[in-house]
Every structure is written in structure tokens, then in C-alpha cells.
């Protein structure tokens, strides 16, 4: 099978020269690099570090003078070249290397022409650019995966976890400039997605293979990379997902299966009935009930038992009824109580 051909286009004004080896090594995973172009003002002192590696890595420098101070003309030159290369029909995909969200529309346009677009940049790259790409790779994580983690905190989005890595000396750790904030998909979101995939296949009578999990996660989260979480392989990473187990067939194919914990389900059901009973004829708001369930059993996910929502799971319990008063209020009652 012939390898795919890619054009690698680098924005030198937004990417450090220290990443060049990482960029080209990473591209060997996807195919052959036929274009290696880098854009910048080569008369500027800031481009000195890139000048030292141009010939070593056979990069073609594209000169773009910054005629007006504060105006980045490099972006325009890269975009024009990308479209010229697109219309030659000589490549199967592009690698756009930048931490600048200004290339988001370019990526979308290339994908509209059925191009695969690999995005590379630092973890600070705006998410709009990351998710526009077919795949996005954080170069700073690849360069140094052994960086010590200082602390974690959840963002306002349920899908994202922000990890703060120290990039300065210990004496600088209180300074904002010494911190590099890295966004990554939360494990809870990934686990929910995996459960959905396995449940969907189970409903269709299909077995879920490890390769399918990797492909579908990549499509849903273009910036998903197991190396972000400190793992070198998807199979090792999957051991973090408590709701599933991995099984190996004779042909060494790895399949994914939900762990059917009936005793855990029975505990959840009995707890729900007990809480609803305490509220008697008044019933309990569905949202409040959900909070109480997760306070008692933080690891509970209805999707592990084949239900897409909490309301579906509760509706499966014979003794309970959900009554909708309007589009925002749903109450849960014990059967034969007030409705």
C-alpha cells in the first residue's frame, strides 16, 4: 500500500525551532513528507534559531517581510501556499504547525476538499484550531513528557481538564509567566464516550475492538492523545477505564467489554427507591435525585448499564415513575403515589 503524502507548513513566528525534530519524527507515523516549508521574516533577529536548522532538516524558507509593524504577514503567505498546493493534487494531507488560531479557517477549508489535516502546536493553542484539525498533537508534551505536574483542576467545560505544568524554576512558580496551562480531555468524558461506543456495538450484536475505540475517540476529540496522560499505548491507557475490561483473542486482537456489575446496580436501585420513598407524595426533583446518587456513588454512570441518561435508568426501575410538569421540571415518585 502506497504511503500518504503530506505537506508540512510551519509558522516560524509561533513555533520554536526546538520542536523541528519532534515535528518530523511525528509525521513518520502518518506518511511521507513531500513539502517542508517554513514561513517567516528571515531578516529578523528572532528567526536566528530557525536559520540554524534550515539546512539540517532540508526546510524550504519562505521569506515574508513584516512591512507594517504589528501585522503578521506570515499567515497570509502560508495560507496562499497551502491553497496552491491543494490545487496541484500532489498531496493527501497537510500538517499545519502553529499555535495560532488564525489558521482555523484554512484547516476547515482543506478538510472540505477531503484533505486530512494534522495540526501541531503548543498546548496553549486555542481549542478552536485543535478541534478543526483531523488530529492535533501538542508538541511540548511530546518533547518532554516527564515534566512534573504541580496541580490539576477542572474547567467550566465537562469535557476539559486543565493541567498546570511548571516551566520555570521553583522560585518562579508563583509567577503566571512560569506556568504553562495545558488543556486535555477529562478521563470522565473519555470513559463516557467509550461506554457509548461499546454499548452501541452491543446493541447491534457486534464486538468492539481496541482499534475501533482509538479511531472513534480520535474523530470525536481530534486532540486526544494517550501520551498526554502519560501512556505510550492505547491498551495501557484503557486500563484507567474502570467500566471496561480488555480481552485478547487467539489472533491477538484486543476486544473491549463492559464490566457487568449486577450487585453494584442493585445497590444503586435500592438507594434510589429509598431516597424517593423519603420524599413521599411530594416526589423528588430528578436533578436533585441525580445529585444525591452521585454524592453517594461518585463512580455511577447509567451508560455502564446500557442507558444513555439518568432518566432512562430510573424509568427502568419498576417501582418508580417520572412525571414531567414542564420542559424543565421532572419529578420522581414511587408507584401508586401522587402523580
Task: Provide key terms for this protein.
339 residues; Nucleotidyltransferase, domain 5; six-stranded parallel beta sheet; 24% strand; 4 domains; Rossmann fold; three-stranded antiparallel beta sheet; 12 helices; 34% helix
What does this structure look like?
Helix content is 34%, strand content 24%. It is α/β, with parallel strands linked by helices. The chain folds into 4 domains: 4-143, 3-Layer(aba) Sandwich (Rossmann fold); 144-185, no CATH class; 189-258, LOTUS domain-like (Nucleotidyltransferase, domain 5), CATH 3.30.420; 262-334, Nucleotidyltransferase, domain 5. Helix 5 (127-132) links the parallel strand 5 and strand 6 (135-138). InterPro entries: LOTUS-like, NYN, OST-HTH/LOTUS_dom. Residues 186-260, 264-337 form the HTH OST-type domain. One of its GO terms (molecular function) is RNA nuclease activity.
Portion in helices? 25-40%
Adjacency order of strands in the biggest sheet: 3-2-1-4-5-6
In the CATH scheme, the class of the largest domain would be: Alpha Beta
How many structural domains?
4
Order of helix and strand elements from N to C terminus: EHEHEHEHEHEHEEEHEHHEEHEHHEE
H/I helix tally = 12
Query: What would the principal axes of the Cα set say about the shape?
Result: elongated
Oligomer: single chain
Indicate the CATH topology of the largest domain. Rossmann fold
CATH superfamily of the largest domain: 5'-nuclease
Straight-line distance between termini: 64 Å
In the CATH hierarchy, the architecture of the largest domain is: 3-Layer(aba) Sandwich
Question: Percent of residues in beta strands?
Answer: 15-25%
Structural class: alpha/beta
Task: Compute the number of strand runs.
Answer: 15
Q: Mind summarizing the main beta sheet?
A: 6 strands, parallel
- Calculate Rg over CA atoms: 25 Å
Low-confidence stretches: 145-157, 165-179
